Amino acid sequence: VYNAAPTWGVSVGDALGVADPVLTQHLHQHQGQTFSFLGIRVSSPLSLVVNGKRPPGSALAPPRLALSNPSVPP
Description:
Layout: E1 16-18, E2 22-30, E3 33-41, E4 48-50
């Protein structure tokens, strides 16, 4: 679940409702082995229903601002 707070999560056995999933086929090769699996991307934990309830607002990770300017003159 993208954008989930580090303190929030689901447990084995939880029932999940996913409103707008994005299904992606992943295919990776590493050291002669091929790994293939499906991934379901959910952009926000707030779009889920967990055990019949929406997650609290605290399940959403806070925004972070990262700045970079590699071409600053000396």
